[in-house]
Amino acid sequence: MWRIGTRGSALALAQAHEVRDRLMAATGLAQDRFEIVVMSTSGDRIQDRPLAEVGGKGLFTKEIEDALEERTIDLAVHSSKDMPTILPDGLILSAFLPREDVRDAFISRKAKTLAELPPGSVVGTASLRRQAMVKRLRPDLAVVNYRGNVQTRLRKLDEGVVDATLLAYAGLKRLGLDHEIASLIPAEDFLPAVGQGAICIETKADEREVNELVGLIHHPETAAALICERAFLRELDGSCRTPIAGLATVDGERLQFRGLILRPDGQQAHAISAEGEPERAAAIGREAGEALRIRGGADFFASLGV
Ligand SMILES: NCc1[nH]cc(CCC(=O)O)c1CC(=O)O
């Protein structure tokens, strides 16, 4: 019996089921050889404050990682985007599934695109990256903090609490909610978060059997992209308070990376691009992070309180 640990949100469950289904297909094992173990994390329990305010890394992973260490689960399924860049000793991201479309989706009952929203419209999003990007592209809009699960957010749109919101296409697709999308925002205009659209599997580094198992559904190109993006984020010491975006794509023997840091008000931004062989993924990401750190200068990050 393989025990798959996951959070209990609809998105987390959909992702855990996808991993189980892929493992069944790759191994020929029956469904009853897998157990999906639903766990609650501090991030799930804290509903009354913006997450950026609560701070602390690993809000959505701590309890699940404890279970891996205690061997009450064998593998954990996560959204790569929610994973801290530094894992507890002895734990590794041992597999990445083929990445979904990385773009952010624009959702509104009032306009087809962000550009078409009437001046003064209210955009709700909890993501500092999306807040900063919206302010950068449309300084005339009002941006408000907006938490809650996807269903709650869609209801607030219907009730007119906000005029538009932005969510990862990948999550909406996995929830079967793609029909809610007004348009997809080109990644060139609106660089996604590091890890967006990629499901990853975390295990204990020394558990050979489970690491062989998840190796069967591992996607090396996604892994190279994620290694690059995570090295970038780690170099910038990305906390939840820092608007940072980064995207690596791998095409055969070429890895291309683009990164962006912004001030929360969107008034200032620094972008970088780099490329090289996928084998150098970590170095490419780290060097890009270093370069942006220098270009931003100490002030840039100091003003963010990180
Ligand atoms: N921060 C929450 C979160 N973590 C992963 C996804 C979407 C799925 C993904 O990026 O793989 C979402 C929701 C969102 O940003 O819309």
UniProtKB/TrEMBL annotation:
Transferase keyword on record: yes
Q: Which GO terms describe its biological process?
A: protoporphyrinogen IX biosynthetic process
Keywords tagged on the record: Porphyrin biosynthesis, Transferase
> Residue ranges of the Porphobilinogen deaminase N-terminal domain?
3-211
Q: In which pathway does it act?
A: Porphyrin-containing compound metabolism; protoporphyrin-IX biosynthesis; coproporphyrinogen-III from 5-aminolevulinate: step 2/4
UniProt-listed Gene3D superfamilies: Periplasmic binding protein-like II, Porphobilinogen deaminase, C-terminal domain
Q: What class of enzyme is it?
A: transferase
Q: How is the cofactor bound?
A: Binds 1 dipyrromethane group covalently.
**Residue ranges annotated for the Porphobilinogen deaminase C-terminal domain, each copy included:** 225-292
Query: Do you know which Pfam families this protein is assigned to?
Result: Porphobil_deam (PF01379), Porphobil_deamC (PF03900)
Which InterPro entries does this one have?
Answer: HemC, Porphobilin_deaminase_cofac_BS, Porphobilin_deaminase_N, Porphobilinogen_deaminase_C, Porphobilinogen_deaminase_C_sf
Q: What is its EC number?
A: 2.5.1.61
Gene Ontology cellular component annotations, sorted alphabetically: cytoplasm
Catalytic activity reads: 4 porphobilinogen + H2O = hydroxymethylbilane + 4 NH4(+)
Source organism's superkingdom? Bacteria
Please list the GO terms describing molecular function: hydroxymethylbilane synthase activity
Listed cofactors: dipyrromethane
Q: Which residues carry this modification: S-(dipyrrolylmethanemethyl)cysteine?
A: 240
Q: What does this protein do?
A: Tetrapolymerization of the monopyrrole PBG into the hydroxymethylbilane pre-uroporphyrinogen in several discrete steps.
HAMAP family from the UniProt entry: Porphobil_deam
Of which family is this protein a member? Belongs to the HMBS family.
Misc remark:
The porphobilinogen subunits are added to the dipyrromethane group.
How this chain assembles, per its entry, is:
Monomer.
Q: Name it.
A: Porphobilinogen deaminase
The organism of origin for this protein: Methyloraptor flagellatus
**Its gene?**
hemC
